Amino acid sequence: MIEEIENAPAGVLGFRAVGEVTASDYETVLDPAIDRTLETHDRVNLVIVLGERFERYSLGAVWQDTLLSGKPHRVWGRCALVTGHSMIAEIIHSLAFLFPGDLRFFALDQEDAALAWAAGETAPDAS
Prior knowledge:
Layout: E1 2-4, E2 12-21, H1 23-40, E3 44-57, H2 59-68, E4 76-83, H3 86-95, E5 102-106, H4 111-118
Parallel strand pairs: 2-3, 3-4, 4-5
Antiparallel strand pairs: 1-2
Helix pairs in contact: 1-2
């Protein structure tokens, strides 16, 4: 499932993946939040946390994730991936050139730094 991060700075959508993330999570949580943001903002700044309670993405969720890249390039601002899952980070890092926004990776203990970076408050400490 996808849970919203309550303390995300203004202008930043923050989400935490818990257990299995499915296509339904995108359809009921992530996609509507992005659409609401685009009603009042020109860009989406996003933080996704894949922490210790994250287990996996379903095949449907992976498909929904690829559909996000179908949104116009101009809508993507800063996107931070916070994770301790090195394999996932490596896969996403290898595909980062496909992502239209500014994508950065942060370790699990840098969640606050990721939120601040996505809000444009600080320079990234991670690559």
